[in-house]
Amino acid sequence: MDPRSFIDFIAPYAMNSMRQSGILASVTIAQAALESGWGNFAAGNNLFGIKGEGQVRDTQEYIDGRWITIKDGFRVYDSKEDSIRDHAQFLLRNARYAAVIGERDYRQASTALQQAGYATDPLYAQKLIRIIESWQLYQYDELVWRGNGYVLSEQDANRIIGFLSAAWHVANDDKARDEFHRLANELRKASGQPEQ
Description:
two-stranded antiparallel ribbon, 2 strands, 8 helices, elongated, mainly alpha
């Protein structure tokens, strides 16, 4: 997957996760991008390299000043969305990541992840920050903050989308149809669903 498509796919889920967990969407997206090679190396839908049972694969670890390859177990998920949910739960359950939860500065949150030992890479925080800034991922944090805490439920969004769909089908004007489609996608984003 190319980076833009990956971001467009994952951003609604990361924003929804931020609303529920307090973990910045920008950091979630950057971690998923870095750990999975923009989704291209997410065996078992594991976007975050979370270790556990389900599959064994080679991984690079930075130990004693050098990179080595080791075999380790990694969790497996039914979907990438499940991986994002588990990532939030993993950070919330482990007290060592407390400085990440609720942090509003992506630089501080990235540094806290590295300091807590999320990855052995000594440049981990710098890499996350570079991804966030290169792709302006902080905009997704700002979208959540601007929402003033109101989260549109998926069920309510889909009800409204149903009305928009009915209007789209009877509209004779292409501009109106484009606007109905745009509004439906805005509702999908606001409720943590991917665009269509």
